[in-house]
């Protein structure tokens, strides 16, 4: 059966695609769940609109990622943590701390984008951040404060 997908369906296609599937799969699952509709003339037009919308969203996402890559390049973050005389932190600077600092600075990053475990020493560290397929290095300065 020829159908139009209204949503992304794993192993079938993406939103806006016109695909051939088994009749039962279409009638019993995809169409009742709202994932697809019969490939009538009006639905084919709707599919073209969905494809155009998907392409606009993809282009916007790529532009946003490029802008974020440029802004992150050479970015520096400073943390102050309690440490002993050897520079060993009494706590650590975690991926969560780094993510939170970047989000407060306006970068839409997630923990999975930060490619480092927690930092346990003072000093200057280079932290890799994965933005789409590119790795951007940011600089992290950890300074010691007086232990309480």
Q: How many strands in all?
A: 8
CATH architecture of the largest domain: Roll
Question: Widest sheet: strand order?
Answer: 2-1-3
What is the number of helical segments per DSSP (H or I, 4+ residues)?
3
Order of helices and strands: EEHEHEEHEEE
* CATH fold call of the largest domain: Ribosomal Protein L9, domain 2
- What is the total number of structural domains? 2
Measured on Cα atoms, how large is the radius of gyration?
A: 24 Å
Structural topology:
Layout: E1 2-5, E2 18-20, H1 23-30, E3 36-38, H2 41-72, E4 76-82, E5 88-93, H3 95-104, E6 119-121, E7 123-131, E8 134-145
Parallel strand pairs: 4-8
Antiparallel strand pairs: 1-2, 1-3, 5-6, 7-8
Task: Describe this entry's structure for a reader.
This protein has 148 residues and is an alpha+beta fold. The chain folds into two domains: 2-65, Ribosomal protein L9, N-terminal domain (Ribosomal Protein L9, domain 1, 3-Layer(aba) Sandwich), CATH 3.40.5.10; 73-145, Ribosomal Protein L9, domain 2 (Roll). 34% of the residues lie in helices and 32% in strands. Strands 2-1-3 form a three-stranded antiparallel β-sheet, with helices on one face. Strands 4-8-7 form a three-stranded mixed β-sheet. It has a two-stranded antiparallel sheet with strand order 5-6. It is elongated and about 75 Å long. The relative contact order is 0.14. The model has no long low-confidence stretch (mean pLDDT 87).
Question: Can you give keywords for this protein?
Answer:
148 residues, Ribosomal Protein L9, domain 1, Ribosomal Protein L9, domain 2
